[in-house]
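quick one before i forget lol
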Amino acid sequence: MANDISENKSLPIRTSALLFLSLNLLICIVLWLSFFTAREHFPSWFGPVFLVVVGLLICIICFYIWQLPRTLSLVKPPAGYQKALIWLLLVLSVPCTSALHKFAPFRLDAVMRWFEIPAEYNLIKYNFILTAGSLLVILILTDLYCLGRKTQAVTGLVILAGIMLVPNDNCGNYFNLPWIQWIGASPLMFMPNSVVLLIGYCGLHGIRPRISILLMAGINIGVFLLGLGHLTKFIW
């Protein structure tokens, strides 16, 4: 079996992908642990669900950290429909995450909301720019991939996944509060996006593409539901 495992040197900036997966893992572990001090501020049913979901996300990240440095010698590239689904889920990941900020900046009143942001929350303006810019970049990378510039496209995914981990949110909710106290801003909002992009990167290289599609869809749906829970005040 050992002979069936070979180093895949064709993956561009794989080391960076592993680094960003590891950073996402660290952020998730901190999120899981810090939630215990804030759980009384959420509905009683939410705590167990949240801890299980974040625990599953930790397991998913660990799985890809284990998979990425090795690949089966007979691994096949994803089918055409799988590639299309992966890129579709990459694009959808950004609007799903924007639900956490009431779908800004994809609202008709986005300009008005921009000028209403208090000075102490000016970092949110960068957050909105990153949201819109990320969607635009993913659309451009999708076009590059379709035009045959696959290496540049998947490299762009990894770079964007790293940019998304730059702390960009100082909204003082109970998820962000520990990060705001430590470094002044939180990396949490786009952390799921970063994970989805890195899973997509793996799937496009033939690393468990079917599983990758299911996991990407699951993360997108989970973040979207969390955003709706916040939008409706059902959760916080």
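fyi The longest helix spans residues 123-146.
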